[in-house]
Design brief:
Elements (H helix, E strand, L loop, with lengths): L4 E2 L20 H14 L4 E3 L9 E5 L11 H7 L3 E13 L3 E7 L2 E10 L2 E7 L5 E7 H14 L10 H15 L9 E2 L8
């Protein structure tokens, strides 16, 4: 089932999310719905707060980036078929010299800006079977993970922009929060009442 993606301005996007247990109700259904929602919106990542749930859960599938001819072949190979579920994730280490990449977000449609992040991370997390992992990721895979990880920390990519950039996009962000935007996927705006 395709879930509505929560738009910029909703308080759930600014909340630090909570850990979940293996007993979390209908986790497999939630994961299936989140993957379907992400693919429907042509995203490469989706965090639970983006579907209105303040829990430490996000998914990543970087396969679409693997088709970018401008990327080095090795990077494209790393992105191809990289699909992972992250539960109760904790970034243990970020290293390397920060680099800029133009980021966007399904909760903030039509806004893209350069964000600086470190290229290498060490992250501890549980997969969909609640098997614990500690992995090191680099390059674009690491960046997508960092972006989604920020969501479970209550941080948006726009929070990382300079005050000048923030002022320049303020009107666009305000329009998104008011629902004054056209998107080709299902969204829920802060001023809309939840449908029961």
């Amino acid at each position: 089932m395709i879930l509505p993606i929560v738009a910029y301005g909703d308080p759930v996007l600014k909340k630090k999310a909570q850990d979940i247990s293996e007993e979390y109700t209908n986790l497999d259904v939630l994961l299936a719905n989140m993957y379907e929602t992400m693919y429907n919106a042509y995203g490469v990542g989706l965090a639970a707060p983006q579907v209105g749930l303040p829990i430490r859960l996000f998914l990543v599938d970087t396969t679409p980036f693997a088709e970018d001819e401008e990327l080095p072949e090795e990077e494209r190979n790393n992105l191809k078929d990289f699909k992972r579920t992250f539960i109760n994730a904790k970034i243990l280490k970020e290293e390397g010299e920060e680099w800029a990449f133009n980021e966007g977000c399904l909760s903030i449609p039509d806004v893209r800006e350069d964000v600086f992040r470190q290229p290498k991370i060490t992250i501890e997390y549980f997969d969909e079977n609640f098997k614990k992992h500690t992995d090191v990721f680099e390059g674009l895979v690491a960046r997508v993970i960092q972006h989604e990880y920020d969501h479970i920390e209550g941080v948006l990519f726009t929070d990382k922009l300079s005050s000048l950039k923030k002022r320049l996009i303020k009107g666009r962000l305000s329009n998104i929060s008011k629902g004054k935007i056209r998107v080709d996927y299902k969204m829920r705006f802060p001023n809309q009442k939840k449908k029961r």
